[in-house]
């Protein structure tokens, strides 16, 4: 009877060991399946264009500039992002002075993608900027704007271009 009991206990221990080994193997396989995607390197995005504007006409920026009157209700930031090899995201991080006032998550769904965000102003006079940040946290570029008294903004004119940020100009482009 003791031999049978020992044999049964030994069989149970062996079965538990096999079950445990299969469970561990399944966990390792699941980790292998999910880890590469989680650790997958973000695409090396390039900020090709950034500009501020006051309106959208026929799906195009209108009233492009870098100096705007204080009575303007809304300001837009347009960006063109290149080199995305798969769908990813960028953030338009809006600052006024040194204070972050908005962080807008925007999809990038192709190798050349245009997108924009907007901000209701009413912040007073001063300087602001928008940083374009990749999903992995890399700053792709930055552009500044100024809000000033309406009469001074008119003197500067609405056609002053912000252009592409210095960071984007230095980024290598594939031919």
Structure report:
By secondary structure, this protein is of the alpha+beta class. The chain has 2 domains: 1-40; 46-163, Coagulation Factor XIII, Chain A, domain 1. 29% of the residues lie in helices and 42% in strands. The strands form 3 sheets. A 5-stranded mixed sheet has the order 4-10-9-6-7. A 3-stranded antiparallel sheet has the order 1-5-8. Strands 2-3 form a two-stranded antiparallel ribbon. The longest helix is centred in the first third of the chain and has 38 residues, at 2-39. The protein is elongated, with a radius of gyration of 27 Å. The N and C termini lie far apart (82 Å). The model is unreliable at 157-175 (pLDDT under 50).
Mean pLDDT: 78
Number of helices: 3
Question: What's the CATH topology label of the largest domain?
Answer: Coagulation Factor XIII, Chain A, domain 1
What percentage of residues falls in helices of 4 or more residues? 25-40%
Total domain modules? 2
Radius of gyration: 27 Å
Which CATH architecture of the largest domain is right? Distorted Sandwich
Question: CATH homologous superfamily of the largest domain?
Answer: abc- transporter (atp binding component) like domain
Unreliably modeled segments: 157-175
Q: Let me know the largest β-sheet.
A: 5 strands, mixed
Structural class of the secondary structure composition? alpha+beta
Percentage of residues in DSSP E strands: 35-45%
Number of strands: 10
CATH class type of the largest domain: Mainly Beta
**Secondary-structure element order, N to C:** HEEEEEEEEEEHH
């Amino acid at each position: 009877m003791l031999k049978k009991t020992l044999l049964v206990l030994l069989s149970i221990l062996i079965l538990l060991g096999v079950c445990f080994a299969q469970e561990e193997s399944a966990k390792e396989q699941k980790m292998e399946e999910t880890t590469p995607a989680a650790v997958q390197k973000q695409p090396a995005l390039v900020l090709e264009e950034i500009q501020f504007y006051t309106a959208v006409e026929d799906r195009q920026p209108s009233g492009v500039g870098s100096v705007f009157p204080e009575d303007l209700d809304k300001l837009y930031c347009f960006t063109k992002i290149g080199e995305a090899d798969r769908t990813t995201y960028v953030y338009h991080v809006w600052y006024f002075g040194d204070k972050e006032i908005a962080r807008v998550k925007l999809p990038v769904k192709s190798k050349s993608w245009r997108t924009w965000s907007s901000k209701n102003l009413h912040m007073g006079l001063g300087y602001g900027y928008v940083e374009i940040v990749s999903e992995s946290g890399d700053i792709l570029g930055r552009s500044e704007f100024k809000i000033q008294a309406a009469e001074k903004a008119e003197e500067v004119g609405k056609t002053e271009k912000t252009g592409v940020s210095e960071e984007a100009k230095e980024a290598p482009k594939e031919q």
